[in-house]
From TrEMBL, chain A:
Organism: Kribbella jejuensis
Coiled-coil positions: none
Boundaries of every DUF3502 domain copy: 449-517
Gene3D superfamilies: Periplasmic binding protein-like II
Protein name, per record: Putative aldouronate transport system substrate-binding protein
UniProtKB/TrEMBL annotation, chain B:
Entry's localization field: Cell membrane
One Pfam family hit: BPD_transp_1
Protein name: Carbohydrate ABC transporter membrane protein 1 (CUT1 family)
Sorted UniProt keywords: Cell membrane, Membrane, Transmembrane, Transmembrane helix, Transport
Family: Belongs to the binding-protein-dependent transport system permease family.
Organism of provenance: Kribbella jejuensis
Length: 519, 305
């Protein structure tokens, strides 16, 4: 067969034809790109939502009912996309960065909210909320005020208590068996872990790959930092979710100087690192902590293979009791907050929400996204999405509790948490109930001196990126105890110094001092 | 040139149109996006509206202090993968070729080909069970080490063994696949060459070493050039599924692909990641060109170009 080019079409002609087609393709593509709605292949009648975790059991039936009702009430439906927790932080950021046209997403400072605000990817919602009566009557004005960043609200806070305070959920049946009774201090906790290791042959503490940054240097307490549990008054700030933690001076308001210091200079931190290293070597912490995701830790806990896991004052830990009892019929759970001084300790709180529903500037309809937030603020709709179909997935118990009939569990904090509408699970343990109620009251906490300070990463974006990369590589292994403390800290210091830690520190100092001045 | 030849040439060109359009749309048009490597990408302004920032994005990678380690890992791991999979493919093909029972041969072939279809995520889970067991305490390999009186290893915090573990995984994954290519080449070796060997009194081992192996050289050379072309692509799927964001293993496992992927996921900075990606493509192009030129020089008859 003769070659096309020499026999028929000249090389120049062939190239010209190729060029023409290329231009046609380019014009075609640009025509497609003109409208984001058309380009996505989605209808504006269907809102795309990003939610964390796996779709709940029985989700299809609940979603069908939600969409029927939404279509009737507001004329549109929703198409939520669930993203595994292990990937949520990175994938949601990537979707924003790539300019995808989804409508809402769960975001938070501990995720990517700082970067997203800096890159103008989020719609300010402060002034919009007032237009939606069901939404605004369910959001406390104090909550809205404390979640503003430089006077602007960049997401709808999703809370079911005044304060969010992380702590421990543990197997009380094991504590009773080992002769502990109620555990109230960190020393008791530690002894419990070692006894569990020795006598029960299960993993005493479950840590997942997205937890390292909260184990030692976190505000107001690092989860495994004994010094913090005894002195719960620290303020820690980072430029972005995975970046470097600086401790800020507690007397900043009186001195006018925030004096940010690297986390290793803060009292108790290096001791805590050494302790965590010992836990790791002694098998107190699971040795696959750098690889395993949070859902695996949860399933291991519910299978009775882990004695203690992370908990938040959101009333959700007790939901594990029923699945746990399938594996260990005699199991009991307890929530332990080992603060020195117990419920009178008044730890620091910024009162900033841990979770926000944010609106994507590239979303198909920001107005409809707000209508959706208003719609889920109506009790009937809230309950349908949060607890599933009444009679099938749940039934009410009294006025403030519900009984779960199926395994349906929606991540309400990513869409529809409203403090006034939330119900507690019927089987909430007495300890969880007590600490949950404690977290409902603002008076139980000390207002953090930097409560509404949110550093702007823009001037040091490049240094922050490089430092964040170094923290993934050298910080995470150090924090979970996988490397020798002295050697690991030395390597980390060299890496972050090279990546621009001094610039970050100077910028944090400048911005925090400016914040204090404006107070 | 007659009208007839012009017409026939035009029809051939028309036949090529779908392929040309495909490559223009999916391979060449996206090249325009490379411009982002030289820009301070701002989502609200888009690719073409974002301001230029010269070579700042490239400086990010080279000033991070990671570049040298990542380049070295990429080359070392890929050379290991390439050498090990080629050697395994040739060895398995020769062994399969020696099997006389047709049923057993087919069964063996299917069995060693099967891992090619196993997802990297499944491989990661299998490895985790083998190396660390539930909650990172134990694992079949550590149990075996204990059985032999050897100390156990925290595999997921010990970077040293990982180039070998990953190479083992690659051989397990691709050995069977490669062997099928070599088996096809073996079947094309004329029967009379072996008959001549038999007449000369060669044993089966000698025939495999002196006839089959040398005649597989051209196939191996083609696979080698293709492999060299991909040497700067560190097999993201497998490595990332197994290593993830486990920083303790980065010293020996972090390659350009995983670095780019992690940077984009964590930093969300398209400019920086595009710059690293462009660097990766350029070096890959240079390498494949060099490999082809070297191959042309030493073995022109099997050259791809």
């Amino acid at each position: 067969m003769p070659a096309t080019s020499p026999a028929g079409l000249s090389r120049r002609g062939f190239l010209a034809a190729g060029g023409g087609l290329s231009l046609a393709a380019a014009f075609g593509l640009s025509a497609c790109g003109g409208s984001s709605t058309a380009g996505s292949g989605k209808s504006a009648d269907t809102l795309a939502l990003l939610l964390p975790g796996d779709a709940p059991k029985g989700w299809d039936a609940v979603l069908a009912k939600v969409n029927d009702k939404l279509k009737n009430d507001l004329g549109f439906t929703i198409a939520p996309q669930f993203i595994a927790w292990s990937n949520y932080q990175q994938q949601s950021l990537l979707k924003f960065t790539a300019g995808e046209n989804f409508d809402t997403a769960l975001q938070a400072r501990w995720l990517n909210m700082v970067q997203l605000v800096a890159s103008k990817s989020l719609v300010p919602v402060g002034e919009l909320i007032a237009k939606y009566p069901n939404l605004s009557k369910n959001l406390d004005p104090q909550l809205l005020e404390q979640n503003k960043w430089k006077g602007k609200l960049y997401g709808i806070p999703q809370v079911n208590s005044a304060a969010r305070f992380h702590h421990f959920s543990l197997r009380q049946d094991l504590a009773d068996k080992l002769g502990f009774g109620d555990i109230t201090s960190f020393d008791q906790l530690e002894k419990y872990w070692y006894d569990v290791k020795q006598k029960q042959k299960i993993t005493p503490v479950g840590v997942s790959s997205n937890m390292p940054k909260l184990l030692v240097a976190f505000a107001p307490v690092g989860w495994l930092n004994q010094h913090d549990w005894e002195n719960p008054h620290v303020s820690v700030q980072s430029f972005s979710g995975g970046s470097f933690p600086f401790y800020l001076a507690q007397d900043g308001k009186s001195t006018g100087s925030a004096h940010p210091i690297p986390f290793w200079e803060a009292p108790g931190v290096v001791d805590a690192l050494r302790k965590v290293r010992q836990y790791y070597l002694d098998g107190i912490i699971n040795k696959d902590a750098l690889n395993v995701d949070s859902s695996t830790i949860q399933s291991q806990f519910e299978a009775g293979r882990i004695a203690t896991r992370w908990a938040m004052t959101d009333g959700l830990s007790s939901q594990s009791l029923a699945p746990l009892r399938k594996a260990v019929p005699s199991a009991q759970l307890a929530n332990v907050v080992p603060l020195r001084g117990g419920k009178d300790a008044k730890p620091n709180q910024t009162f900033q929400a841990d979770n926000f529903v944010v609106l994507n500037v590239k979303g198909q309809s920001n107005e409809r996204a707000m209508q959706l937030e208003d719609w889920v603020s109506i009790k009937e709709n809230h309950d349908l999405l949060s607890y599933g179909i009444e009679g099938t997935d749940w039934k009410p118990v009294g006025t403030d509790k519900f009984e779960q009939l199926t395994g349906y569990g929606f991540p309400g904090y990513a869409l529809c948490w409203r403090q006034k509408l939330e119900l507690k699970i019927k089987d909430i343990t007495p300890t969880e109930n007590a600490w949950f109620e404690w977290a409902q009251n603002y008076a139980n906490f000390t207002l953090d001196p930097y409560a509404s300070f949110v550093p702007d990463v823009t001037p040091v974006k490049r240094q922050d990126s490089q430092v964040a990369a170094a923290m993934t590589q050298y910080g995470n292994p150090l924090w979970i105890g996988a490397v020798d403390v002295d050697k690991g800290l030395d390597t980390l210091k060299k890496a972050v110094d090279k990546a621009g830690l001094a610039d970050l520190q100077a910028e944090m100092d400048k911005q925090a001092n400016a914040y204090l001045k404006g107070q | 040139m007659t009208n007839r030849t012009v017409r026939s040439g035009l029809w051939l060109a028309v036949l090529a149109v779908p392929a040309v359009v495909f490559f223009l749309v999916f391979s060449y048009a996206p090249l325009a996006g490379l411009v982002v490597a030289f820009k301070e990408f701002d989502i609200s302004k888009g690719i073409f509206g974002s301001p230029w920032n010269g070579l700042a994005n490239f400086r990010y990678f080279f000033s991070s202090g990671d570049a040298q380690r990542i380049l070295l890992n990429t080359i070392v791991l890929n050379v290991l993968f390439l050498a090990a999979t080629l050697a395994a493919g040739v060895t398995l093909a020769i062994m399969l070729n020696e099997i006389r029972g047709r049923f057993f041969k087919r069964a063996a072939q299917s069995t060693i080909f099967f891992p090619y279809f196993v997802s990297p995520v499944v491989i990661a889970i299998m490895l985790q069970v083998l190396l660390s067991g539930p909650n990172g305490s134990g694992g079949v390999v550590n149990d075996a080490l204990t059985g032999f009186g050897l100390p156990t290893v925290d595999w997921y915090t010990e970077p040293g063994p990982w180039p070998w573990i990953l190479t083992f995984v690659k051989v397990w994954q691709l050995g069977g696949y490669m062997s099928v290519i070599f088996l096809a080449a073996i079947t094309s070796i004329p029967e009379d060459v072996y008959e001549a060997g038999q007449i000369d009194g060669a044993s089966r081992a000698q025939m495999a070493l002196r006839i089959t192996l040398p005649l597989l050289k051209p196939t191996a050379a083609v696979l080698l050039v293709l492999g060299v072309g991909r040497i700067f692509y560190g097999d993201l799927g497998t490595i990332y599924a197994i290593v993830g964001d486990n920083g303790t293993l980065f010293p020996t496992t972090d390659v350009i692909d995983t670095y780019v992927f992690r940077s984009l996921r964590q930093i969300g900075d398209f400019g920086t990641t595009a710059a690293i990606g462009l660097f990766q493509s350029v070096v890959g192009f240079v390498l494949v060109s060099a490999a082809v030129l070297i191959q042309r020089r030493y073995s022109k008859e099997t050259s791809l170009l």
